[in-house]
Design brief:
binds zinc ion; Beta-Lactamase; Rossmann fold; alpha/beta; 6-stranded antiparallel sheet; about 35% helix; about 475 residues; 15 helices; disordered C terminus; single chain; 15 strands; globular; about 20% strand
């Protein structure tokens, strides 16, 4: 019997309640009835077709097949890649297991499966990520390795179905059974270089220049999921590629090492080491030993505590170029947080080359419309603003893909440097940085709204500035 484990709200694959009704009818009817609708994104109908295929594929899997759950999980993971999702959430509740994809930073419901097969779906995921299936009462972490990785597990049943990207699986026991989250890591060549990141041109150029420096620290900051790690990886690639290409006289080979927890993407030309609990090697110890390895460029995955911050900044003062990430809302706030951690102001002023702060904002889909009566225009005078509408191409979200909002603070500029030494407030540091030429994330956001690239609410959402209430379409 086909599709018996799919709940009615599978329709959320297309984000539309109407699709939910259609799902209860035969699949053929569903495919045909929608063929002529939604003309607003005609050039994107290929994408729309994918939604229908996904619904059809989930529903058409034969649940009497002993391999049913195996096929289902393979299909869900493959679909996540098709949708360019960054995470897959499998969330059990009283009446079933909900599957959600995080697309462009926002969770989107995809399908709901009946409770009877919920444990089997999670169990299959655990088999694929080599977790203990008989333990459902403890949190676990594992990986599904990508197709390109060397595998020792040649008898894995679905080895032909390995994903193109590395997937990290974590499970957590809940009242209604285990929930699982799969993180998908983009292929190592998805973002090759700094120029591919979509950073504002002035920042991309400034960053590339700073990478030529022999010493100092470059911090990429932002909240989780802001793309800061991707930026640091792009910097590493830039450095590694420069080393390989010795035909140009100004490109000198450098010893590049990284300390990561975990190593997310392998990069040619970089000595990458796993640190943390799994490797039984803490970052401060690793850094101390690494100094005897004569490194020139050091990448530290993330600064999480005062010890790491201190050790990393000291390394940057002793002739090393240091790249790292740090959790902070803005470049100026990062300075404030490091000072609060007890880092000496002189270490920051002398050690820091730049703090890059970034967010990813969603770009409006072509289905958007403009309104001229908007009350909220982010405090600037705008004749009209664009608001999301929603179509099949954008899964009814009104947005497709994301772009970077970034700001780069360079403490070296005198006033900013003295402000750090005087431990001035973050707002004051930001004011001085702006006076010295920094364009803030907020300003970039206002420019993006003025250009019709995104909506007022989206800018408020990503920059965490008060809730939007004035634009009808976004409620
Ligand atoms: Zn759309």
């Amino acid at each position: 019997m086909h599709g018996q484990y799919l709940k009615g709200d599978i329709g959320t694959v297309a984000g539309s309640e109407k699709m939910g009704e259609k799902m209860r009818k035969p699949i053929e009817a569903n495919l045909n009835s929608n063929a002529q609708s939604h003309k607003c994104c005609e050039e994107l109908t290929g994408h729309t077709q994918k939604n229908k295929q996904l619904i059809a594929e989930f529903a058409s899997l034969d649940s009497t097949d002993p391999e049913f759950v195996t096929h289902l999980v393979d299909r869900i993971l493959a679909a996540a890649q098709d949708y360019s999702a960054s995470d897959v959430h499998l969330q059990p509740f009283a009446n079933g297991l909900e599957v959600l994809f995080r697309i462009d930073g926002v969770l989107q419901p995809i399908a709901t499966f009946a409770s009877e097969i919920a444990p089997n779906i999670v169990a299959r995921l655990k088999v694929r990520s080599e977790l203990l299936t008989y333990r459902t009462d403890i949190p676990q972490e594992g990986r599904i390795r990508a197709e390109t990785s060397t595998s020792t597990n040649s008898n894995e049943a679905s080895s032909s179905n390995r994903p193109d990207v590395e997937m990290r699986v974590s499970t957590f026991p809940t009242l209604h059974g285990e929930r699982a989250v799969v993180r998908l890591f983009a292929g190592s060549d998805r973002f090759r270089q700094i120029e591919d990141l979509g950073l504002p041109a002035d920042i991309a150029v400034g960053l590339a220049d700073l990478l030529e420096k022999p010493a100092g620290a470059i911090l990429a900051t932002g909240p989780a999921g802001s793309g800061k790690t991707t930026t640091i990886y792009a910097c590493l690639r830039e450095l590694a590629d420069n080393c390989k290409d010795s035909s140009e006289r100004n490109k000198i080979r450098r010893n590049i090492v990284s300390l990561e927890d975990p190593v997310e993407v392998a990069i040619d030309g970089v000595s990458q080491s796993q640190i943390g609990e799994r490797a039984d090697l803490d970052l401060a110890t690793a850094l101390r030993f690494l100094m005897r390895q004569d490194p020139e460029v050091i990448m530290v995955g993330e600064i999480r505590d005062p010890e790491t911050a201190e050790a990393a900044l000291r390394a940057s003062l002793t002739g090393h170029l240091l790249l790292t990430t740090f959790h902070a809302g803005s470049a100026a706030e990062a300075v404030g947080r490091l000072l609060d951690m007890g880092i000496e102001p002189y270490l920051l002023r002398s050690g820091l080359l730049a703090i890059l702060s970034q967010r990813l904002a969603r770009r409006l889909c072509r289905c958007h419309r403009t309104v001229s009566e908007a009350v909220d225009t982010l405090g600037v005078s705008l004749e009209e603003v664009s608001v999301p509408v929603g179509c099949e191409a954008c899964h009814q979200t009104g947005f497709r893909e994301r772009f970077v909002l970034a700001e780069m603070l360079v403490p070296d500029r005198t006033e900013v440097g003295s402000a750090i030494i005087s431990r001035l407030e973050a707002t004051e540091i930001e004011r001085l940085a702006v006076a010295a030429g920094m364009i803030t994330q907020w300003q970039r956001g206002v420019e993006a709204v003025a250009a019709g690239l995104t909506s007022v609410c989206e800018i408020r959402r990503v920059l965490g500035v008060s809730r939007c209430t004035n634009i009808h379409d976004e409620g």
